[in-house]
Amino acid sequence: MSKPSSARAVSRDKMPDPFLPGALVIVTLSNPREKFWGMILTLAVEGLSLSGAELASFEDLALMVKDGEPFTPAVVFFPMHRIERVERDLPDGSLPSLSQRFLAKTGLEPSTVLAPSGRDAGIGVQAGSSKPRPSKERA
Q1: CB under 8 Å to 3, separation ≥6 — which residues?
Q2: Inter-axis angle of helices 98-106 and 58-66, to 10 degrees?
Q3: d(CA 119, CA 113)
Q4: Among candidates 59, 63, 60, 61, which has minimal Cα distance to 51?
Q5: Mapping DSSP to helix (H, G, I), strand (E, B) and coil, where does residue 127 land?
Q6: The model's pTM
Q7: What does the pLDDT look like over 106-127, one tens digit per residue?
Q8: In terms of Cα–Cα distance, which of 54, 66, 75, 70 is closest to 101?
Q9: Are the beta carbons of 82 and 42 closer than 8 angstroms?
């Protein structure tokens, strides 16, 4: 006869980690209180590296990308002592996730826009295309 607790431990070990690099998340921070939406670059004991934007700017971001304006996501590191909560960006019942809303508004996959490739070269993404284009912001 097996113990129920050992069965639960085995099934937990087989579950994939939901917070691997590339996962789209919402991060709640403290001191000061902020929220970020973005894609995990790395998650370590020291903290979380994220490619994304402040949640307060989400609607402006989606509009900017939809209008074809150059966009370079923020690449930020949050030390673990500031992280209050990290949650996957998933739909909640009939409410779409932020990623689904971004896709609906821009026609672009968030993972394409937030991906690290080309970011350091000042690359933006044009709405209606998943191909990067040079940013006009650099002098």
Answers
A1: none
A2: 30
A3: 10
A4: 61
A5: coil
A6: 0.72
A7: 999 999 999 876 444 333 333 3
A8: 66
A9: no
- Indicate the SS3 state at residue 116: coil
C-alpha torsion sign, points 43, 49, 55, 60: negative
Nearest to 81 by CA among 45, 40, 34, 55: 45
Spatial strand order of the sheet with 34-43 comes to 74-79, 47-54, 34-43, 24-29, 83-88
Q: Where do the domains of the chain lie?
A: 21-134
3-state secondary structure of 76: strand
Summarize pLDDT for 60-97 with one digit per residue, the tens.
999 999 999 988 899 999 999 999 999 999 999 999 99
